[in-house]
Amino acid sequence: MTQQSDAQNQTLSNLMHEERRFDPPADLAAQANLTATAYDEAAADRLGFWAKQAERLSWATRWDEVLDWSNPPFAQWFVGGKLNAAYNCVDRHVEAGAGDKVAFHWVGEPEGETRDITYAQLKDEVCQAANALVELGVKTGDRVAIYMPMIPETVVTMLACARIGAPHTVVFGGFSADALASRIEDCDAQVVVTADGGYRRGAASALKPAVDEARTKNSVVRKVLVVRRTGQEVAWDDSVDVWWHDLVAKQSTEHACEFFDAEHPLYVMYTSGTTGKPKGILHTTAGYLVGAAYTHWGVFDLKPETDVYWCTADIGWVTGHSYMVYGPLANQTTSVMYEGTPDSPHQGRWWEIIEQYKVTIFYTAPTAIRTFMKWGDEIPAKYDMSSLRILGSVGEPINPEAYVWYRETIGGSRTPVVDTWWQTETGAIMISPLPGVTSAKPGSAMTPVPGVVADVVDDDGNSVPDGSGGYLVLKEPWPSMLRTLWGDDERFKETYWSRWPGMYFAGDGAKKDEDGDIWVLGRVDDVMNVSGHRLSTTEIESALVSHPKVAEAAVVGATDETTGQAVVAYVILRSAAGDGGPDIVKELRDHVAKEIGAIAKPRQIMIVAELPKTRSGKIMRRLLRDVAENRTVGDVTTLADSTVMDLIKEGAATSTED
Ligand code: WT7
Fold first, then answer.
1. How buried is 525 (Cβ within 10 angstroms: 0-12 exposed, 13-18 middle, 19+ buried)?
2. Looking at residues 105-121, what average pLDDT do you find?
3. Of 57, 128, 366, 501, which sits most exposed with the smallest number of CB within 10 A?
4. How far apart are CA 531 and CA 541, in angstroms?
5. Is the distance from CB of 429 to CB of 481 less than 8 angstroms?
């Protein structure tokens, strides 16, 4: 537990003793989708409970066995079942007579640019895109990379892939060409779907050039399908590039879908781990869709006839997959999808959208909430947000101040806030209050959802008593669990299942309070959480070391008021580089952006002469974090040379920050 920030621990332990709870509103509790009996039902017959949740999907062939766990940690759920994820998200709703229902109210960033897409229209477009992918030579089992802005075609492409059984790998548009190339290569994606660009922060940003550059780094990609979104000029290679409007528009809106095995791969989502190489998290069809649909329905108390739901995540992250695409569509939800940033063209844009579409359920990240708090209460006060009935939070621990502000200022003190803990690996929400059941405490994710078995354990894997801290684990398999890491079963076993037999190690520290409720504290490994985005210290260190002027680098996540954590790097320059020149800090920050993406840019880079190391040569990141957070430097007795910390502190005092 030494890796946790002391400040964070302190804040949490102070607040955990505060006796503040918010009970569910009576009217919500009276009609809630999930009630307290669900906990008992799931506890009495866990697999029976999951089988019941699986009934919310349409199956071409029913499963024979709910779970095959004979070869852990390799799970098979709903063995023998057959289904199609796209059929479940689109066709069946049209067949049920909901073709005219809006699936997405899409809002472009430039004001006035909107589009409502009904389920019937979505079905036609998904079929056309599926036919187009087939024409490009994509076959069942082939991987398709998606590098797109937040536009309807992104959802259409994901569903088209699912429809033909070609696992997609969506790469966040903020990642660099290098990051895109390594993901394409790792899963051998021969077709890439992209756009000329998208709108962010009031301007058109480019995407296609990164795909072009990624193509020069390996020879995996055969075809690139390009949506025209902004009209900006793009380089064109006739042998590879195809316009979406040329190829997709001419396709038939009919496509007979095939039904795949429950365990057919649905998608690969790359996420940072503790080494430099991102992990390809593999999700398969049935279990994933069951998990996403069940939690979206239960945790958000979704009433498809009346709710208007909005999750602000980017589709490039798992939240966008489970809670903008698969969960909501499987549940026949009407959702809002917004292309741009919250401050464009003004800082009230999100609240204006909530007012305009009468959003009832809103799901966002603590980092955004803290930003709005900074911008001031007078901005949301200008809008009528009385339609809201449930608020959600995800991505990092939500500090109680932000929780209360969110509930009061955005939710008008009426709305429950569900603080949902989960991960790319878990596929769906694992720990969260239920809005109609839980008496929630600000800052706590509370209890595992019915069907999930979570615990906090000590170094030996023993459950800790209430009032103590330890490591967060999941003790039973769940349907939406990752099945493996793409092409790396060994790393899958080693990373998640090797610490304690039979338990999934999440990589988070947590505490159980006196009532046994769970407070997630943050990562206990070399993974940082910046604005709810997962970044690996090692990956950023490797990026820095690949710069010709850098000899050595150490990266830590320091507490940051807005982004949760921020990247702080300590760099030793090569002697041939001298002092690195006047722009060295900018040069290194830009280099990290080029290697990984702008989200990984260090907030601060300190050029130092030495790094604190243990006798065995391990960098003592804890001490570096102390310096970065301006705290008294902790215990240095295990340092090989304890004077090093004084040098670092001097360096920190004079370092350049921008
Ligand atoms: C890590 C997973 C899953 C959605 C987005 C992030 C942290 C996530 C919470 C929460 C405290 C949280 C954890 C987790 N995290 N939600 N409600 N409270 N911490 O997905 O990139 O896979 O990151 O985000 O540290 O391990 P991800």
1. middle
2. 97
3. 501
4. 19
5. no
Both tokens of 134, joined, read 């087939």
Which atom of ligand 1 lies at the shortest distance from residue 425's CA? Answer: 22
Indicate the Cα dihedral angle 298, 303, 308, 313, nearest 10°. Answer: 20
Strand 191-195 to 168-170 pairing: unpaired
Average pLDDT of the chain to the nearest whole number: 93
Amino acid at 449: V
Residue with tokens 């809005």: 435
Spatial CA neighbour of 28 closest among 431, 415, 391: 415
Six-digit token string for 442: 């600000």
CB-CB contact of 286 with 479 (8 Å): yes
Amino acid (one-letter) located at 280: G
For the stretch 117-126, pLDDT in tens is 999 999 999 9
CA torsion 5→6→12→14, rounded to 10°? -170
105: how many CB neighbours lie within 10 A of its CB? 20
Give the CA dihedral 9, 414, 371, 381, nearest 10 degrees. -150
Q: At residue 2, does pLDDT exceed 50?
A: no
According to the model, what pLDDT value does residue 91 have? Answer: 98
Q: What is the DSSP string of 595-628?
A: HTBGGG--SEEEE-S---BBTTS-B-HHHHHHHH
- Over residues 446-470, the mean pLDDT reads 97
Are the C-beta atoms of 186 and 270 separated by less than 8 Å? yes
Q: Ligand 1: does its nearest atom lie under 6 Å from the Cβ of 165? A: no
The alpha helices in 282-342, defined as continuous H runs, are: 285-299, 318-320, 327-330
Structure tokens belonging to residue 341:
């940033």
| Span from the CA of 465 to the centroid of ligand 1 (angstroms) | 24
**Which residue in 109, 138, 512 sits closest to 342, CA to CA?**
109
| Ligand 1 centre distance from Cα of residue 423 (Å) | 5
107: CA distance to ligand 1 center in Å? 27
Question: Which protein residue's CA is at the shortest distance from atom 19 of ligand 1?
Answer: 396
CB 20: neighbour CB atoms within 10 A?
A: 12
d(CA 482, CA 327): 16
pLDDT tens-digit readout, 288-345: 999 999 999 999 999 999 999 999 999 999 999 999 999 999 999 999 999 999 999 9
Q: Among candidates 338, 366, 341, 347, which has minimal Cα distance to 530?
A: 366
Distances (CA, A) of 616 to 562, 613, 641: 36, 8, 12
Environment class of 235 (CB within 10 Å of its CB; exposed 0-12, middle 13-18, buried 19+) = exposed
Note the pLDDT tens digit of each residue in 184-240: 999 999 999 999 999 999 999 999 999 999 999 999 999 999 999 999 999 999 999
Our answer on whether the CB atom of 421 is closer than 6 Å to any ligand 1 atom is yes
CATH architecture under which domain 531-657 falls? 2-Layer Sandwich (3.30)
Establish whether residue 420 lines the binding site of ligand 1, counting it when its CB lies within 6 angstroms of any ligand atom.
yes
Closest CA to 120 of 150, 147, 84, 92: 92
Say yes or no: CB of residue 4 within 6 Å of ligand 1.
no
